[in-house]
Amino acid sequence: MEINHKDITYEELSSSYKERTIIDVRNRNEIEACGQIPGSHCIPVTEIKLACDLDPESFKARYGFEKPACEDDLVVCCKSGIRSKAACDLLQSKGYKRHRIYRGSFSEWEEKGGEVLKPGQPYEYNFDDNSDEDCPSGPATEEPSNLISDTSPSTHEVSLQARNNYNKSL
């Protein structure tokens, strides 16, 4: 069964990204090499199931921000929109209902002149008024081999599945 997800456009996101929870599902190396939408949070697509299953305290320790509730509005992006579709399918299966795909993703964001946070560049604003710290940019707390369970699909499998699902939706 094909799952349809709502989209968000560059225009919508560029005027409201500071108020939104944006999940960037690219891997950390891509984000470090290319930059990210300011305020977005890195949860690689291969970790989405794991992230959804973590208790709030463990989630915050691993990803550096409060675990979104299933009712929270989320925007999911990647480099070009394919992995975000796979991530939204996984979020949907874990009970998250209010997520939107930024199909243009980081490539469009950068191409259209959206603000880009480069590695090592500090945030200029704080997203959580109740916190004294900005979004952390430190390394993951576990070795990469511990981030994916034995039953998680490989990145290649997720990419192939996402590409097939995306092509079917066209």
UniProtKB/TrEMBL annotation:
Residues 126-135 have a biased composition (Acidic residues). Residues 143-170 have a biased composition (Polar residues). InterPro entries: Rhodanese-like_dom (IPR001763), Rhodanese-like_dom_sf (IPR036873). Residues 121-170 are annotated as: Disordered. It holds the Pfam family Rhodanese. GO terms for cellular component: mitochondrion. GO terms for molecular function: thiosulfate-cyanide sulfurtransferase activity. SMART domains: RHOD (SM00450). Residues 16-118 form the Rhodanese domain. This is Rhodanese domain-containing protein. It comes from Scylla olivacea (Orange mud crab).
